[in-house]
C-alpha cells in the first residue's frame, strides 16, 4: 500500500470585484503566492479540512466549496505520494486576518494572478483551478533520469 499525505487548497473569489484571495507563503519549503490551504488531519473529512484551514489562515468562514481538481506526485526520497484537493468558492464571511503565521493574505485582481511571484508550480495548479475542462495536475518522475514532468489533464 502507498504512503499518502493529503492536503487541500482553496481559491476564494469575490465575483463582484473580480478578485481572488492569495497568500504570500513564507515557509521555505514552498514560498511565494498561492491560495490558502494545508494538511488534512487524521479522521477529518476533506471538506472539513479546507473549511478549517481557510479559517486558520485567513479568519474567513467559507461555504459552498466545490472540488475543482487535484494535484499529485510521488517522491522517491520520502517514498510518499502527495495529493492536494483543489477547491474554489465565492461564498465567504468574516473579517480578513491581516498577518498570519503562514504568510500575509490579501485580495488581488483575478486577471493579474499569473503576473505575481507565484510559489513553485502554482501556475499549473491555477491552470486546473481556472479551467472548466482540466481535472488533474500530475507530476511524474522519470526514475532513470531523475527528471520531473508536468502532466495536466
* Uncertain spans: none
| N-to-C SSE string, H for helix and E for strand | EEEEHEEEEEEHEE
User: What is Rg?
Assistant: 15 Å
- Largest sheet data: 10 strands, mixed
The best one-word shape is globular
Mean pLDDT across every amino acid position = 94
CATH topology: Nucleoside Triphosphate Pyrophosphohydrolase
Can you describe this structure?
There is one protein chain. By secondary structure, the chain is mainly beta. The chain has a single domain, classed as Nucleoside Triphosphate Pyrophosphohydrolase. It is built from two helices and twelve strands, in the order E-E-E-E-H-E-E-E-E-E-E-H-E-E. It has helices at residues 46-58, 122-130; strands spanning 4-14, 19-25, 32-34, 37-39, 61-63, 66-75, 80-89, 91-93, 99-100, 103-109, 136-142, 147-152. A hairpin with a 4-residue loop joins strand 6 (66-75) and strand 7 (80-89). The model has no long low-confidence stretch (mean pLDDT 94).
Task: Give the secondary structure arrangement, pairings included.
Elements: E1 4-14, E2 19-25, E3 32-34, E4 37-39, H1 46-58, E5 61-63, E6 66-75, E7 80-89, E8 91-93, E9 99-100, E10 103-109, H2 122-130, E11 136-142, E12 147-152
Parallel strand pairs: 1-7, 6-11
Antiparallel strand pairs: 1-2, 1-4, 2-3, 2-10, 5-8, 6-7, 9-10, 11-12
